[in-house]
Amino acid sequence: MRFDAYELEDFYDELFQSPNQPRVEGVALVDRIHQLESGELLQRQQAAQQALFKLGATFGVYGDHQGGERIFPFDVIPRIISAQEWSHLEKGLKQRIHALNLFIDDIYHDQKIIKDGKIPAELILSATGFQKPCMGLNPPHGVWCHITGSDLVRDRNGQWYVLEDNLRCPSGVSYVLENRRVMKSTFPQVFEEIPIQPVDEYPSYLLNTLLHLAPGNIARPTVVVLSPGIYNSAYFEHSYLAQQMGVELVEGRDLVVVDGYLQMRTTQGLQRVDVIYRRIDDTFIDPLEFQADSLLGVPGLMQVYRDGKVAIANALGTGIADDKVIYAFVPEMIRYYLGEEPILANVPTYLCWEPKQLQHVLENLDQLVVKSADESGGYGMLVGTQSTQTEREEFAQKIKANPRKYIAQPTLCLSRVPTILDQEFVGCHVDLRPYILYGQDIYVHPGGLTRVALKRGSLVVNSSQGGGSKDTWVLCQ
Amino acid sequence: MLSRVANSIYWLNRYIERAENVARFLEVNVNLMLDIPNGIEQQWQPLVTTTGDRAFFEEHYGKATAENVIQFLTFDQQYPNSIFSCWQKARENARSVREIISSEMWSEVNATHQMVADASKDLSISDLSDFLEQVKQASHSFVGTTDATLSRNEAWHFGRMGRFLERADKTSRILDVKYYVLLPSATDVGTLLDELGWIALLKSASAYEMYRQSSQQHRVTPAGVSGFLILDAEFPRSIQFCLWQAEQSLHRITGTPLGSWHIPIERALGRLRSEMEYLMIDEIIDRGIHEYLDQLQQQMNEVNHGIYETFFALTPLEDTAAPQSQAQSQSQTQFLATQQNH
Fold it and tell me: Does residue A382 lie in a domain region?
């Protein structure tokens, strides 16, 4: 297969700067692909898919009771990021996470940012992610967001934007690691020729981040991954990370609060747990304090947490910063807390909460992407350019009924990467979710998950909406 | 090890063993029916009786025809002990302990589950034997993979305990039902009524070849076959052998030396197994084989319950009881309860 007929159209292409002219960082890859015998690339694509199938690297789809699990489709053409570009992103992400962490800490303590008039109190209090029981909470070392996955996109000019931040339990990192493993066995020679930053240390960094949280004086802290169980869409990842770190994977029913400590039920009796990497939402953690009907959580856990006898990553309450209305204020937070200008830009965002902006949104629904402030995974959104009149009318009603719940953004012309569709190269839109760990320092894992929209022309990259993924190569300096 | 994890590994092994036994019972009966002279009614009812789920069968199927029984035991998705359901639950359990078992074990379970699910969509009766063979093979392959890839840790011992307790239960059950069918009256004991049936019974437990080889036996007799299936110390599907394996794993888990006991479950299993060691088949026949097996099953039932109480149902708090372990043990209790009614 060759790229001769590959069309760039009017988009930013991550691999080619002009027709048949790869970007500097992509030359070696394109050469390598052109050297393959005809049919070989397709064979390797199939082999890679099969390898992932055998691993059982699946995700679940909500509302799909028949299939339950699916394989996350994988494309073998990687997305390449130059060392220089990466260092820019890395700086920008560190800055952003630093500010977000200070923001969360502020919100659950003095709320200076509200008092200084930078964010209206009303927006904070009405955010579904704002957790009253977390007021006054002091997580170890003042860190709230230990694991973040921020979604980045590039527009038509190649300019990077942050699309959203995921500070509760971002998923997808297991695919980063598995995709790389499969790519290494699919294209070993390329890895010899091109200096690519390795990704395998993620579980070690994650474990260190978690161990750092353990209450003092414990020689060998017990770390667990808390999962909702096998029916959760990201169960594969929960189990994978537990295995890679060599820690227990637990469910709420394995845990119990006894004598003021969190304990797990083992065949040898109860055993104390010191650090939880939780993969369930805040409100499911403890039915006594949050959702009373939750079967996933552990009654009494919140009090143990407050007493500092167990650490939780991410801290409870971080969901406040996941709210897409709050997102709009992140550049302001960076200026407010750090006294710096944001390195990475936000996508321009209209808040329907504000009457003038609401008017603008309603008048331009066919041009905008409207999102619900507290939903993710591509649910609860309207892509104006691809919607029907009826859909827009229905959505307008929803917005008017609850303006606080909605934001709108211009439709971005997401950058593209060549992808194999129907045995030819087609430019498909991508985004990027890098993973950031906040332990002793802030660490940005090189690369991240490149999600790709596998329908021609589609802009929705979510796995639950038919998206796939690619390996992400960050080149060495 | 987490109680929930131990419970899942235990049941993962039980379900795979259960599916294998169902496949074997079915395979042998299909073959046996081919040997029956025309005009004599085919015997499918005993197979249903063996499962202990006769009420379920009668409610959903009515008459025990070949077609009904085969569907019931292979692909019935509602029936919790069909081959399909067993593999589905085996995979579900495996999936919940993926980080504990080896990836090779997971692959085996995943692949077989897929094979069974595919077969359930379009299996013609002519392919049935191949399918049953594959189910048996998959179980053996899983056990081999486990032995070759899993450390001899708690997980391995819980797995072995589950597998052998399930096997002991199945051997006792097939013997009980077949004995009853083959020897309807106690006065027939000791006569050579139906050698074909007894050979089929041995084959149901993959015991025919080993029975022939074992030095004590020359002829296929009811006493010989029963003795072999209950008391043989070397045959891996005899009840005594199975209980001995389970007991060894139990003691590795608790750390109590073999031959002594600290907790009730060690006493219950140890006593049951060691009594068998000194028993002779003639004594069992004198007592009545059905009566003996009935009591044995009750005792094994107590062992199952003891394992649940000791390891899986730790500190039962009302709100946080483990739904999965309860559901699983419930289906088993129900299974045994119905068995006692036949």
Answer: yes
ipTM of the complex: 0.73
Q: How many beta carbons lie within 10 A of that of residue A388, not counting itself?
A: 9
Task: State the smallest CA–CA distance between residue B57 and chain A in angstroms.
Answer: 26
The CA–CA distances, whole Å, from A82 to A25, A199, A473, A474 equal 6, 16, 8, 6
Distance from the A415 Cα atom to the nearest Cα atom in chain B, whole angstroms: 37
**In this structure, are residues B52 and B173 in contact, taking their beta carbons and an 8 Å threshold?**
yes
pLDDT at A161: 97
| Chain B hits for A255, Cβ within 8 Å | 320
The pLDDT tens digits for A333-377 are 999 999 999 999 999 999 999 999 999 999 999 999 999 888 766
Give me the residue label for tokens 């094994």. Answer: B300
Cβ atoms of B220 and B198 closer than 8 Å? yes
Q: Which domain holds residue A387?
A: 348-411
HSE-CB at A439 with a 13 A cutoff on CA atoms is: 18
Single out the residue of A436, A449, A439, A446 nearest to residue A97, CA to CA: A436
Decide if A252 and B320 are in contact by the 8 Å CB cutoff. Answer: yes
Q: Do B22 and B35 reside in the same domain of the chain?
A: yes
Look up residue B255 and give its two tokens.
Answer: 């750390």
Residue B228 in any domain: the answer is yes
Please state whether the peptide bond connecting residue A232 to the residue before it is cis, i.e. omega within 30 degrees of 0: no
Question: For testing the chain B interface, which of A225, A230, A270 should be mutated: the one with the most B CBs within 10 Å?
Answer: A230
Q: Which domain covers residue B141, as residue numbers?
A: 1-150
The closest alpha carbon to B333, from B296, B295, B292, B305, belongs to B305
- Which of B21, B4, B2, B75 is closest to B325 using CA atoms? B4
**Interchain CB distance below 8 Å, B98 and A253:** no
Q: What number of residues does chain B have?
A: 342
Largest CA distance in chain B: 60
Contacts by residues B338-341 (CB-CB < 8 Å, ≥ 24 positions apart): B338/B52, B338/B53, B338/B54, B338/B55, B339/B52, B339/B173, B339/B297, B340/B294, B340/B297, B340/B298
B297 and B204 housed in the same domain = yes
Residue that terminates a domain, selected from B150, B170, B186? B150
CA dihedral over A263, A265, A271, A276, signed as positive or negative: negative
Q: CB of B78 within 8 A of CB of B49?
A: no
Distance from CA of A257 to the nearest CA of B (A): 11
Residue A182: CA count within 13 A, CB half-sphere: 29
* pLDDT one-digit tens code per residue, A27-71: 999 998 999 888 889 998 888 888 777 666 666 544 444 445 667
Residues 232-251 of A with CB under 8 A from B: 235, 239-240, 242-243, 248-251
Q: Looking at the complex, does the CB of residue A270 fall below 8 Å from at least one CB of chain B? A: yes
How far from the centroid of its chain's Cα atoms is residue A171's Cα?
Answer: 6
Q: Confirm if B21 and B72 have CB atoms less than 8 A apart.
A: no
A254 → closest Cβ in B4, B103, B317: B4
Please state whether beta strands A160-166 and A147-154 pair in parallel, antiparallel, or not at all (unpaired): antiparallel
- Tell how far CA A377 is from the center of its chain: 10
How many structural domains is chain B composed of?
Answer: 2
In a domain, A366, yes or no: yes
Distance between CA atoms of residues A36 and A32, nearest Å: 7
Q: What angle in degrees, to the nearest 10, is found between the helix axes of B239-254 and B264-277?
A: 150
pLDDT-derived band of residue B323, with 50, 70 and 90 as boundaries?
very low
Phi, psi of B62 (to 5 degrees): 85, -105
